[in-house]
Amino acid sequence: MLKKGKKSDDYNGSAYKGITEQKTIPPVPRTETRAESTVIGENITIEGNIHGNEHLVIEGSMKGNIEMDKYNFAVGPKGRVEGEIHAQNVKISGQMIGNIMTKGKVEITKEADFMGDIRAKGISVEDGAYFKGSIELAQEPHRKTTLAEKSTPATTAQPVNMSKTQTAKEDVKEN
């Protein structure tokens, strides 16, 4: 037989309090790092420019410029893009003809077929990828100054005493 009084004494209501506390916890607000992503399917063709405030993946065909400076852009393995890309980071796995300008990194996978110029902070090209174009890597100004300061003392040459060299040559001529 169950005793109702004992049951409430054993738990002291703590299990119920825990459940109540869990229900009153407010939801975690969304942050920019958990941004949504849009995928353009492989049976979709777009002609025109895209401006966006979320990550974008092209699996279909796109002809036009893409501007999403604070978000990532990717061309999927079956994707085909012709245009100029402005994004935070770019990953190319399909075909692309055009220029890429990023504040971050460009990744060209082994499945990629890319023709165009790249301006980025970093780049990686997997073995087997096709790439035809130029690369301009942006460096932070303070790195150039630091490297220049470190290399200056090592490259400073000591003056050579020419008289010792000349006398050594004269000694050789006299013998």
Shape: globular
Q: Which sequence of SSEs, written as H and E, runs from N to C?
A: HHEEEEEEEEEEEEEEEEEEHH
Helices, by number, come to 4
How confident overall, as mean pLDDT? 76
β-strand number: 18
Helix content range: 25-40%
Q: Could you list the spans in which at least 5 consecutive residues all have pLDDT below 50?
A: 6-11, 18-25, 28-33, 156-175
Helices and strands: which structural class?
alpha/beta
Main sheet attributes: strand count, strand direction, barrel closure: 6 strands, parallel
Cα(first) to Cα(last) distance is 124 Å
Gyration radius, in Å: 32 Å
Q: How are the strands ordered across the major sheet?
A: 1-4-7-10-13-16
Beta content comes to 25-35%
Question: Would you mind describing this structure in some detail?
Answer:
This protein is an alpha/beta fold. It has a domain at 35-133. 26% of the residues lie in helices and 33% in strands. It is built from 4 helices and 18 strands. It has helices at residues 4-11, 14-23, 141-155, 162-174, and strands at 37-40, 45-47, 50-51, 55-58, 61-63, 66-68, 73-75, 80-82, 85-87, 90-92, 95-97, 100-102, 105-108, 113-115, 118-120, 122-125, 130-132, 135-137. The protein has a 6-stranded parallel β-sheet with strand order 1-4-7-10-13-16, with no helix packed on it. A 6-stranded parallel β-sheet has the order 2-5-8-11-14-17, with no helix packed on it. The longest helix is centred in the C-terminal third of the chain and has 15 residues, at 141-155. It is globular and about 45 Å long. The model is unreliable at 6-11, 18-25, 28-33 and 156-175 (pLDDT under 50).
